[in-house]
Structures are given as structure tokens and as C-alpha cells.
Amino acid sequence: MEEARLPLFSGTVGPKVFRHLNAANKAIDESGLPVATQNLVKLRASQINGCGFCTDMHSKDAAAAGETQLRLNLVAAWRDATVFTEPERAALEVAEQGTRIADGASGVTDEAWSRAAKHYDEEQLAALVALIALINAYNRVNVIARNPAGGYEPGQFG
């Protein structure tokens, strides 16, 4: 695949929609939810959704923010990896269940939510929920448009 089927960053609708999505992302960035957790959640949801463009972006952004290659390599297998903190594991569990809603009748389980609530306050939990919803929206847009992966440079979108 060489180019996207739809130029999302040109025209009038695409840029306007992305401005709003990016404004929501800025609110999450400023929420107090740890940046490392945000990066892990974005990466894991992007992997689950098969979004190569977002997986490329979020793995590179995480590395640029100081994330280790070992942890990036193990995000998809976080349950079996010893390199993640309990709060990160709780956030990843909620992210997976929130991303795979169609796979489970109840969405995010009470048990997963309780584990996350032990580590994050209400503002951080609100940011986590918003982040999961937002990254799933970005994933879907990029998968549908078939934005190719591999060419992203950290900080490319500001």
C-alpha cells in the first residue's frame, strides 16, 4: 500500500474534524493521567484495531518520550510481562476491554474497573475513558482511509 485511499488532511471536513479530535486529545494530555500510561494505551488499542498508521505513530512518540524498547515490544503481551506497573496493567486491561466491546457483552467488567479505580482518581479515570474512545476513533478513521504506516516522525502533528 503506497498511499491512503482518502486524503484526510486536506479539504474542509477532514481538517475540521481533526482539529476537534486534537482539542480533545489536548484535554487528555493535560489531565494528570501519566504520559507513559497514555502512550501504552494508545499503542495497545492501535495494535488491537490493526491500525498500522497509529501503531507506528504511538510507538515512535512513546520512544521519543523516553519509553524503553523492551516495554514497547511487550505491550501486546502485557499480561505476561513483568515490566509494567500495576496502574499501567489496570489501564491496559480497561483499554483492551473498552476497545473490544463487541467481543464481550458487558464491555468493561466491574473487576477491571475496580482495579483501575485503585490507582487513578476520578479525573484520571475520565481521561482514561476519553483516551480509549478517542484512540479508537483515530484508529477507525485511519484504518478506513488506509493511511499507510512507516513514515511517521515523532511530533509530526504538533
Automatic annotation (TrEMBL):
InterPro entries given in the database record: AhpD-like, AhpD_core, CMD-like
Domain Carboxymuconolactone decarboxylase-like, first and last residues per copy: 15-97
This protein's name: Carboxymuconolactone decarboxylase family protein
Lineage, opening ranks: Bacteria, Bacillati, Actinomycetota, Actinomycetes, Kitasatosporales
